[in-house]
Amino acid sequence: MLPPAVPDAAAAAPVFAAGLGLTLSLIAAIGAQNTYVLRQGLRREHVALVVAVCVLLDGALMALGISGLAAFLVRSPALLRAVGLLGAAALAWYAWQALGRALQPQALQAQAQGARQAPRRVLAQVLGISLLNPHVYLDTVLLVGSLGAQQPAGLQGVFWLGATSASALWFVGLGFGARWLAPVFARPQAWRVLDLGVAALMAYLAWGLAAPLL
């Protein structure tokens, strides 16, 4: 179980911001899950169900990564260092990919046509898109988990709260704001600006994770 948040706001604020910024960077990219959430938002079809599933899955997997890695890796400093460096390398790779997307941005397309689906079918689809994607585990369990496990014990819950808040903000905004966000996402220039920001933030976080371990 994640430790409770400490009352020291000065120490908690940057940890919360790190969890928030990292998670926003990881999920703010064109992908199957985001496309599906946006599509459901455009259709106004079971949006609350889709958003809730995405946020709950993210929160559970990130909690597993942070608390599980912290409990296991604390017994092996060498393994903790290796996982930290692996997480930093993955963040650097994501930053490079985001930079590549910024150089060749593409519009996000989501279709709003089709017959209305039953809730059970929508639930099966969002679970499949989320859990059958290996990047979900890389993002939540490994990347968020490795950075969260590096936090002091009393601040791991704060990091998780920031990461989960980012997931909630993104999916709520994407699902319920799809009618207003779709024209923005249809412009490649908007994704260029977003991916440049993602690349810069991920590179910064990768360095911050790797520097103390080198």
What tags apply to this protein structure?
single chain, 214 residues, mainly alpha, 78% helix, globular
Commentary on this structure:
It is a single chain. This protein has 214 residues and is mostly helical. 78% of the residues lie in helices and 0% in strands. The protein is built from 9 helices and no strands. The chain has helices at 9-27, 32-43, 47-73, 77-103, 119-131, 134-149, 156-176, 178-185, 188-210. The longest helix has 27 residues, at 47-73. The protein is globular and about 55 Å long. The mean pLDDT is 83.
Characterize this entry briefly.
By secondary structure, the chain is mainly alpha-helical. The chain is built from nine helices and no strands.
Beta percentage is under 5%
What are the low-pLDDT stretches, counting only 5+ consecutive residues below 50? none
Residue-averaged pLDDT = 83
Distance linking N and C termini: 30 Å
Kindly name the structural category.
mainly alpha
User: What is the alpha-carbon Rg in Å?
Assistant: 18 Å
Tally of alpha and pi helices: 9
Morphology: globular
Main beta sheet strand tally, sense and closure: none
Number of strands: 0
